[in-house]
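Hi L., both proteins are below.
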Amino acid sequence: MKGKIIKPNENLRLLRIYYHLEFTLKRLFLSSNQLKDLKKLERSLSLTSVIAISIGGMLGSGIFVLPGLAAAKTGSSIWLAYLLAAVCILPAALSKSELATAMPSSGGTYVYIERAFGPLLGTIAGIGLWLSLLFKSAFALVGFGAYLSILVNIAPGLTKYIALIFLAIILFLNILGVKKVGKVQIVIVTISLVTLALILIFGLPKTSPELLEPFLLEGNMGLFSTVAFVYISYAGVTKVAAIAGEIKNPSKNLPRAMILSLLIMTSIYVFVAFVLVGNIPLKSLGTDIKPIYTISNLLGGKYVGYAAALIGIVTLISMANSGVLASSRFPFAMAIDKLLPSFMAKIHSRYLTPVVTIIMTCFAMAMVILFLDVEKIAKLASAFMVMMFILVNACVIVLRETAAQWYNPPYRSPLYPALQLFGIGTGIALLVFLGLGPLLAIVAIFVLGLLIYLRFGKNATRTGILRKYGHRPALYLFYKRKKREQLAYRKNQPIAEQNLDGQLVSNAGVVVPLLGNEKSAEMLVEIAAAINKRDKIQAVNITEVPNQTFLDAFEEEENPQVTSLDRRIASLAVSKDISIDFEAVVTHEMSDTIHELSNQTHCDWLVMGWNGRAHSGILVSNPVGWLLTHINSDFALFKDNGVRYISKVLLPLRPGRKEKNFIAVADRICKFYGASLTLLHVVPEKTTEEEITGMKKKSKKLLTKVETDGVVFVQKSDDSIAAISKASASFDLLILGTPQKDNWISVLFGTGKDKFTEKSACSVLRLTMRD
């Protein structure tokens, strides 16, 4: 047996270039000796190192610049605003931990959103992420100018222009590929933390109760708007997700690092904010964008203040530099993905840096510094980051609810989906509290993203999970559903002939996709043989991998699991005298592949293993739901509850369903196994004996059309689930039909497990028949 590779329509050369560039960018951050040992260092970061990196991502303008402006909005309750902001950002931190462990080297938030929602939301997310980091870096440079004015005599009106001069230096440093040395950054973070700790030690005892009034300057509304305002302070907590591929034991250390660093920085923000409002009059603090200098000067005198100003300068310029480095990569990655003009993917021939996007980012930062005041910059930075974290929480919901085969994160966020829904809800509320301006800016980002997508999106090589498995509510929000005929055929030519490699049986009666999660692949194939009306069965082992994984890497790789499965299927074919063809494929789009298999083989049935999950979810469905509406064959889902010998089959009948078709399938299964058949009617308690007699007579007449001897049983019960569950204890196989169409509530919020299947004591076969 030789496995086949399914290759989607994508430019493989472009992907090779992308991975080459990704490696080149990594190389810029490593010394020559480190580069030689790159593979060994991929899991070299310890928990302590990751916590330090995460703290470094948060330590900057959030504490050196923002507290004074925030205090002007809410009074001495600023410390509570920082605390509530941390609570609001916790769901995003845990969600991003899960996404990062599922896709540890996939490229961060932009790729998570694009993978879940598709290139349209990916485009919007890329622009939003670019702007959020851009505004945050611009905010840091404005604060840098204010701190620099303490050490150098600069007229107040010139601080913006000084910030622009240093922005130009940062521009050239990024083009030349000169990056701050990691050890220097650790020193900067350490000195900053020591400085803040000293402020707490000397400032807490001097806190004045009189200065702590008023607690709520603008009431609860002022407090909540301040929570939204300081939200950007914690944005760096999730940055470490981008280096998940280099962390030791990321499934444990990544979420631990995020939570611990969030706790550490929350404590720092809360207590430093309390010291500031307890030592500096609110009237002075409210207009101060260099509060750490002010408090240091107040507590320790002029020279201590100068030292704090110097620390602020170094910290903020370092933050701005790293912001340019990170934000410039988003439009670069989008250009690689063909979502922006190709010239934006240009790299410098000598320095191998994305020169176009670096210049574009720095130019945009210059415009922000020149034309926006510091408060508007902070508000817009927070708004764009809140929007991104809303989408991060939504990504987890989409990927979990769709149950994509490749999505198997070692770490799973707790309290799902309540935690994610809390993050989404609080995020939307915070956007409202930020005011009309940031909301209009976000609307503008969506419009701009839509226009860019309409111009360049047709070149995108990937589609999102939601596009595949979304219910109509979600699809209408993001996509226009294609007609079913266009999905199945293109000019009467099956899509399979365009995309699917391999020699498959063209006259197979049943196709059995094996996804690796079956309790017993042999039992599933055996059930397929039982319902087959033709001579041959096509079994296909399908491995789905993320779009970012290069399929060519699997071409020559020998998979022991596939080899074992091939051997076992061959033994089953001999022992049961069944004609089975077995193939193995690797794909980026599992549902598309199954759809193409169905078309290429012209099969009567598609038979799959099943965990009993209903096809509804929160605005999305799992792949089963997508296949139910797109394949042209009959569809059977087998829930294996461990029964190995089928001697008694139970078929509950439902009025209005084509009962003879279900009885015909049950008849084939009974003949294959030599089993008996029982037809069950569950009727309400108020049903009359005359109605029951009519049902029995009709069902017995149907049984005369098949070879299997069967009996009819009628059970009075107002709880059909409990009645069928109790009856299933006396049988080996329960055959069910597809549940009735979901209502809007179940479509939006999900139905979880199929209740009949979940309560069944025996194995379950759920049938969906077209005719």
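That was the first. Here is the second:
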Amino acid sequence: MKFKFESDLEYQLDAINSVVSLFDGQNTKNLSFPHVVEVNPKVISENKILENLRSIQKENNIKEGAELQGMDFSIEMETGTGKTYVYLRTILELNKKYGFKKFIIMVPSVAVREGVLKTLNITKEHFKQLYGNISYNFYQYDSAKLSKIREFSRSNTLEIMVMTLDSINKDTNIIKKHNDRLSGQKPIDMICRTNPILILDEPQNMESEKSKDSLKELNPLFKLRYSATHKNYYNLVYRLTPVDAYNKGLVKKIEVLSVIKDEDFNTDYIKCLDITVDKNKLKAQLEVNKKQKSGYVVKTVTVKHGDDLEKKSKNPNYQNFIVSGIDARSNQVKFSNGLIIKKGQNVGGDKEQIMKMQIRHTIEEHFRKQDILKPYGIKVLSLFFIDKVANYVEKEGFIRKTFIEEFNNVKRGFENYNDLDVTEVHKGYFSAYKSESGMESDKEAFDLIMKDKEKLLSFEEPTQFIFSHSALREGWDNPNVFNICTLNETVSELKKRQEIGRGVRLPVNQDGDRIYNLDFNILTVVANESYSDYVSKLQQEYFDEYGNLVDSPKPLNARDRTVLKLKKQFKLNPEFEELWKRISRKTNYAVKIDTKKLVEECVSEINSLNINSIRIKVEKIELSLNDDGIKTLFIGEESEESNNNFEIPNLIELIANETKLTRNTIYEILAKVDNFNLIFKNPQEYIHSVSLIILEKLKEFLVNGINYVEIEDFWQMELFKNVEAYNDYIIPDKNDKCIYDGIICDSDGEKNYAQVLEDNDLVKMFIKLPNWFFVETPIGKYNPDWAIVFDERDLTGASKEKLYLVRETKFVENLENLRPLEKYKIKCANEHFKTLGIDFKTVNDINKIK
């Protein structure tokens, strides 16, 4: 199989265009020194970049900064939404529009590096098709292959080098030493002369002063910082928050399956929560069973050296538990009876039993989901996070033994998996396990998990269960991870967001197609803590990151699911039979565009453009020398309009490529505008502005000129299946008006509307149209909400006519405020249903039915 990439995802294009627009007005000429070095062109003035930045931030609803924070720019994209694809395509756009050629992708670890190199490999064909067979080179920095440094500095083509931070952050690194193979030069000096553009992947891991100094040594033209969890923001350009991704259906939904023990105060349960230093004294926070007037409760107590836990808890179960030592370096507490407990570890809480249950439930979830998803061509993967490597890699390790036992037990209840061999279905990847014993095929496991994603997603590859620890924290994810089991023996370094980030990406099928709008696009987290605790910790992470600006998406309770069943003989229901007969017919569409009118309207809007001249700025800066080097003091500036003659590019070809219109049509438009002279003020801005005007007008004309024709094909009743849903999203069908025994609703507004339909005597039946029922439009598929059978009656109560209605519900104050894309799709749907003779309307009031 091959991964397929979509080039027209709106949010990705927004992220790309936001960065590219930072440099509007940029000179496109490279500086080159023959046979020596090819240099990225200098960027426009900081004042112009700040002006562009403020405009972009305003458009993206980001608080504008008072001043430019250096030449660093932050792009925030939630895990699983294609961050690597976005920055690779941004590189190609920056090259195409401005001629930038030297790029270094800086990564914090080998795991991230492998993920980036993998993406570079599998996107090469896609990008060549997208960018006219563009020529570019990519490779990882290798201190044993310094000829690549020479190639990077001298090549006249687009060069992309991937480096780990470790390769440049020590003075002993080869890159910082004089080298005979480079005519005595330091490799880093050859790089820095090119003024490379740095792409920082996961920059929150590069925030130490040492890391900042190392990055500065590369003499970057500017830095683009991409992450889902920035530590600091520098000139924030674009933000796709977890809530944005969740609400737009760009990631899987999340559910939590918690495995916990009911309160048991009969044991000497202890959990070490934290170890701190307070006024030069070491203290530990322990969770214990404490006796109070109302009985025993789980409470947190703070202890220091010499404290008697029996007295602190007033619980005799802790006799002889006297703190004999606290070690902050090894993060452990020692008691007089010989017990040693590490931070995050617990004793006396049936830990192994809980882990066993977690493993069992994960395997059951795995088999259940695989049964559901196999018909869609989707292979299910399950990921286990553990902290103690020996528990899996050792032959007698508890997790390995338990997994084998539980797998062989659980598979007996799933007839499709009885023949599976447990030795073939699981593998582990641990970055440090070469020092451990028991893992014989480590290279095979590494290649499969870290490099061969396509092979791992194939049904022909038996591996389905992956065991790892924080080595897979960043730089690795897989679209088909549907279950994550957290078997944490000690405190995990992973945050909740990082844990779920390994599995939130939308899945792909055996053809490499991304699968959207699937009811079972759900990531199940099998956790060893209560559902409410897990949710509160995840919400706290969102709050710490975003404050009160957004509401965090609430994970669903895995135990609160039910199966909605189709009613027997539902196909024979005369109301449904007639409704389906009318609405299930399919159509094809054709678009007729009045080219003459399109040209006229484009010309009219282009004539209102105002393009500012490029100005020459003179800055006066005072330089002074001190022990720290050169200090600068800004004195003042002057500017005047440039009178240079710009080299005008082939604007007809450029605009045609942007808009996908013919060159003749673009020529017709430009030949009729009366402000064509503006191109001499700022060619790039003029081309960009004209292209945007034409694209918006074209969308409008596509929709207005659409014509649907009924065809022989139709949606089959057999596509209706029993569906699984969450009780929070269901209202019961008490009046027998639906084909299921309940109605699934996606929001409170839909629940209210469904209840009105359920309670209205004139509504004979209704259905929430499934995701697979859609209308094709030139701008994407459209799935309407409701199909309704309505009974018109006269004043005697006698039935006059049955109405067959399709309704879209949009719970906004004014339907005119819908996003243009939504309005365009609804307009197309209106034409489709008009062709079928179906009454279709969009309503924003729950009482509007007829």
